[in-house]
Every structure is written in structure tokens, then in C-alpha cells.
Amino acid sequence: MPRFVRRSTMPVAAPALYAWHAAPGAFERLTPGWNPAHVRARTGGIEAGSRVTLEVPALGGLLPQRWVVEHRDTIPGVRFRDVQLEGPFARWEHLHRFEPGGDDASVLSDEIDWALPLGPLGQGVAGWYVADLLARLFTWRHVRTALDLRRHAAVADRPRLAVAITGGTGMIGRALTHFLTGGGHRVRWITRRPDAARGDIGWDPATGAIDHAALAGCDAIVHLAGANVGERWTPTHKRAIRDSREQGTRTIARAIAAMATKPRVLVSASAVGLYGDTGDRVVDEASPPGPGFLGDVAQAWEREVAPAREAGVRTCLARIGVVVASEGGALAKMLPAFRAGAGGPLGGGRQWMSWISLDDVVGALHHLLLHDECTGPYNLVAPEPVTNAEFAATLGRVLGRPALVPVPAFALTALFGEMARETILTGQRVRPRRLGEAGFDFAHPTLEAALRFELGRLR
Q1: What pLDDT is stored for residue 197 in this prediction?
Q2: Which of 133, 162, 174, 403 is deepest in the core (most CB within 10 A)?
């Protein structure tokens, strides 16, 4: 029977390593966008006898596969075991062990005994694929585990927060939620469709309504909500882009100003589109806004935080660049063509892309939340922007595919209209000056490092 083992040193003591695995959201943090698995039901945490029901991809992602796993042999701070009750394997037993490695170190050991259906035939046909997938998956898992633990350990002396998040169901909101709960913070979503069992906070930004009583007791608010920019801009959708940002921010800021006990900090999203098309000119937080629809929207968006700031609440503006993530955003839209060997630069390819990995967006938002000296605007972009042609070449190299098929500007304009002209065919060359001055440490300072992590190509 095949056996897989991966062992890595972690930057915290064994009890803290176990506690991270036991925290809500740990499984989601251990699930990459390039190999998704969705929790459909859960009973308990990781104590013996608890179960989790997953939906995992099968047949190349074309069909979902049900997978039921039971936790057994749990010894808090030491180990737990996952045993398949129903799923794609003939046998699956996964032992998680947390071994002492010193006061501030431990060894994470993942040991898996597995077998495929159909005995030797199944092993001969697909065993090589499963062995390779496990190696890729657990290399990725151990890198992310160590990163999350380091970031939480760096602020271990600071109080844990009750954080309210708008846009919690979005890509960044979900990742931030699971990251924060892994560090012992309590997260609640501000949403139009609140789930009382989950502890959500209801709101309707179109009318300015919010559940003030439920908002009380929050130490921090992260405001991420806003209509999707990455689709064709009809007049109706342009209005939704602007209104969702202005009305949502206005509702949050006024609610904060009215609170008897105010939160410590508001981190409100913005975008590097504020700078307009910068050409080859490098801009930072001191640079003026630029022209265009997105520049106008971002300026109005940022103005709406004024009531919270004037009420004495520390306020940070997170100007987010192009987020590199395999599960969504620009990269997910590009991947099918690039995997087929039909990818290439967009338009002329000379436009700049100020990008940032999903883990660094999450890490930067966490940094702004936990560091009291941070206030005002921050560019959430990596320190090395690239041209669109460089992005395409790097993505092709990481995938092992050619990236020589350009998409002409007229085709993009025909498909997406004004959205293409202002987002895809123009860009910003942005520097994260203030984030660097605040001491933030990027996990993925180069595009190749970010793509290799996001696509599970670390080996």
C-alpha cells in the first residue's frame, strides 16, 4: 500500500501548531485554489468522532465527488487522524502529528496511507498522478502553514480582535476570514442576508441601514464590498460600481461615527485605479489621482470614510492592485487559454500591471489591522510591477507553455468596451512605499514566486 510522508519545521511550538489546525477556517487555509475542496457539512472540530463532508473535483474537475472523513485518535497538542468513510479512495488514513522542536519551533508531519479502487489496475493507471498531486499539495500546504504561523506569531503580544467584514463572501473576504480565525480573532460578516447562527450583521447599503446593535462590540471593521469591475460596463453596471462603493462606505463610516464605543480601526478598500493610466511613470501614495471613470470612483470611494476618521477612528485606505489568485480574478480568467498554449500579451503588452498575491493582500490587511501606527492610504501591490507582456511570459514559463499568441486591442474593445480601454489596455506602475515603511514583509515579492505558489508549482 502506498505511503506518503511530508515533514517540515514550523516557527511555533507544537501546542500552537495544533491550535492553528484546530481553529475554524484551518481546512480552508489548507485548500489551494488550484485543487479546490468545499466543506458541505461538519460535526464538531477535530476531536475524535467528528466528521467533515467535502465536495472534491473528479474527472478533471468536471464532476463533484463526495468525500466523508472522520477524525480519530485525537490527542490535543500531539496528533489527530483522518479516516475516509466515503470517497474516491479504496483506503485513506491521514495522520497529522505535531512534534516538539524547541520553545519556538515544532515539526509538522503528515503521514498518509492510501490505496486506489481496482487494486493494481487502479494503481497502475492513476497511482503516479495521485503521488504527484500529494507531493504538490503538501509542499504547498506546509509553505502556507508556516507563512500564516509566522504572521500571527509576529503580533502574538497584541490583543485578539472582533473583526466585522463587508464583502466576506468575496475572494479576498473569504481568505481574510479564514486567516484571521486561524490567529484567534473572531470574525463576523456584514451582509444583506445575515445568518443568525453564524453571527452575521445585517445591512442594506442602498438605504444606509445597518444593524447598529449587532455592530456594537466590534474592535475593527474591514470594508471590502463593491460591485465587480471586471465585466462589461453598461450604464447600469457603471452606476452599480460607483453606488456600491460610495453607499457602502458611507453606511459603514456613519455607523462607526454613531457608535458609543467605537472600533479601534477601519480598513476600507480602494484601488490603484485611483492613479489613472500612469504609463511608465512610477507613482506612490503621495501621487495625485488620475482621470477616468475608475479614478473618479476611487476618489469618491475614499472620501466617504470621512465620518469615521473625523470621529477619531484610525482609518486606513487599502489601494489594492491586480490580485494574483488561482481561484478568481484576472489570473483565473487567463488560465484556460494559457494552459492550452494559446495565451499571450493583451493589446500591445506594454501596459503596467501592479499586482499582488492573495496571501500578501491578506497579510497586508492583517498588518494594517494590528499596527496602531498605520493610518491613511497604502498601496497593496508587490514591490516589482511588470508589464502585461512580462506577466504573460512569466505565466507561460511557470505553466511550461508558450505565451506567444497576442490578443489585439480591437478584439478586447469589441468584447468589453470601455472596461477594456480603462483596465486591460491601460495600467499603473505603482510602488508600495508606505507598506514598506510600515515594516510589512512580502511573502511573494516577485511575480514568478506568486504564480508558482498560486498554481502549486513550488517543486
Answers
A1: 83
A2: 403
Phi and psi torsions of 254, nearest 5°: -70, -35
Running DSSP on this structure, what letter comes out for residue 71? E
| CA gap 269, 245 in Å, rounded | 9
Summarize pLDDT for 363-402 with one digit per residue, the tens: 999 999 999 999 999 999 999 999 999 999 999 999 999 9
- Which amino acid is located at 197 in the chain? A
Residue 61: the pLDDT is 58
Cell of 415: 468584447
> What are the two backbone dihedrals, phi and then psi, of residue 114, each rounded to the nearest 5 degrees?
-145, 155
Alpha helices in 272-328 (DSSP H): 293-303, 306-310
Closest C-alpha among 278, 221, 327 to residue 429: 278
Pairwise CA distance, residues 418 & 232, whole Å: 7
pTM here is: 0.96
Which pLDDT score is estimated for 168?
95
Calculate the alpha carbon distances from 241 to 82, 166, 233, 294, 316 in Å: 44, 15, 9, 9, 21
Cα–Cα distances (Å) from 286 to 146, 190, 275, 282, in that order, read 34, 31, 10, 11
Taking CA 308 as the corner, what is the angle to CA 303 and CA 314, rounded to the nearest 5 degrees? Answer: 105
pLDDT, position 62:
63
Q: Which residues in the chain come in under a pLDDT of 70?
A: 59-62, 459
User: DSSP labels for 119-133?
Assistant: HHHHHHHHHHHHHHH
User: To which residue does cell 515544532 refer?
Assistant: 106
Instruction: Please state, in angstroms and as integers, the Cα–Cα distance from residue 313 to each residue in 25, 258, 266, 299, 367, following that order.
Output: 29, 12, 7, 20, 17
